[in-house]
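Hey, can you fold this?
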Amino acid sequence: MGYLNGAHTPPTQEKSWLDQALTFISTAAHWLGQWIVGLVNSLIPALIAEDLIDPIGYLALLTIVIVLIGIFEALRKAMYWIVGLGWLLIVVRIVIDKFS
């Protein structure tokens, strides 16, 4: 228990990593929503209400995650082709060395 200027102050509980992560996601979604709503409202004034900032931000974050997952999936498939081609070239090199 602490004292601040002679007054008793209740102990504060530290935020867990989960609280901090959720706060970060919420802040990022809010900022992204503000940016999108500001951009759209600068083009067409008063088109999007201010109470849609957070939902738009969360949907934008989910869209970014889905796009990144799609990109990583495509990269994974490309890596399989590259590794397979590498093994094929190694086998060809061994065969050429053996018969020449």
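Oh, and this one too while you're at it.
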Amino acid sequence: MEDRPRIEWFMQDGARPHRTEKVFRFLDEYFGNRVIALDQPKFTGTGMDWPPYSPDLTPCDYFLWGALKDTVYGNNLSTLDKLESSICVACNSISIKILKDVMSNFILRLRHLIF
């Protein structure tokens, strides 16, 4: 991975544990100015601040976490093994059609941002 150009951008959520100076320094070291995060510019002088009222852009944010939560927590999860198993079953039960719909929605979200 080190021998290929770094073109990825990192878009961080606004969770407080993810907004420490140590985290910001790590992100700055790896991604440089290709970070979109609340308070990133304040700590590092690089990157972009998270735009106010911006939509969640990642499929995990607008689809997966909610779908997994609804499915997984409907079960009796008395052990960590049961939780892990329930998460795996829930992920494996997502159909290809649903995944295609989610990705189509992702493209639509990006177009709304660009245009």
